[in-house]
Every structure is written in C-alpha cells, then in structure tokens.
Amino acid sequence: xxxxxxxxxxxxxxxxxxxxxxxxxxxxxxxxxxxxxxxxxxxxxxxxxxxxxxxxxxxxxxxxxxxxxxxxxxxxxxxxxxxxxxxxxxxxxxxxxxxxxxxxxxxxxxxxxxxxxxxxxxxxx
Length: 125
Description:
Blueprint: E1 3-7, E2 10-13, E3 18-25, E4 33-39, E5 46-51, E6 58-60, E7 68-73, E8 78-83, E9 92-99, E10 114-115, E11 119-124
Parallel strand pairs: 2-11
Antiparallel strand pairs: 1-3, 3-8, 4-5, 4-9, 5-6, 7-8, 9-10, 9-11
C-alpha cells in the first residue's frame, strides 16, 4: 500500500523551531516530487514547500520563504520540513503529498494524488 505519514508536529513558542518528517512507503520518493501544505481552521489549504525529485529544486510559499526549508533523504525515503522562527500564524495541520509531474512552481493542492493524514503544529505567542 502506498502511503505518506507525517510526524514531528507539536506545541512550540513563537521564535522556536520544529522539524516535520514525511515518511513514504510503498513507493520511492526518488521517482516522485513531494510537497508540504498546511491548513488552518476555516482557511483553505496553503502550499508551503515543494521539492523536485530529479534535481532537488525547491519552491516555497511567500509566507514561509527564508524561514522554512524542505529537504529529503532518499535512503530513508523521507522528506523533511525544517521550520525556523515560527509565528502564531504558522499554526495549522501540516500535510505532505506527492505529485508525479515535474512542476517548476509551487503546485496547487489538486495536482497531488496521495496525501498523508497530517500533523498538528501549534505556535503560541
């Protein structure tokens, strides 16, 4: 069974850091591009970061540029999201997802075909 499982969420104070993990099983991330999204209560799902499988190019949403970093470890079949200088407005459920198409932009949520269950990130002020 192909699946993505996020982990690493939690409660942190503003200014602190957190690293999320997205573990893939049933397929290899070497063949798929992976993105991170978030969704806060009452808001639309927002693209956060995206990494291409072929050359490792990365793309970020404007609200997280300079603070978040997406990376991957092919040997562990895992993608990470390092989040620094967290703000209360970063509070959301964070999801990872896969897309086969080699987009050279931050893809929209409807372009992805497999999603994880999400992990909650809460940033207190």
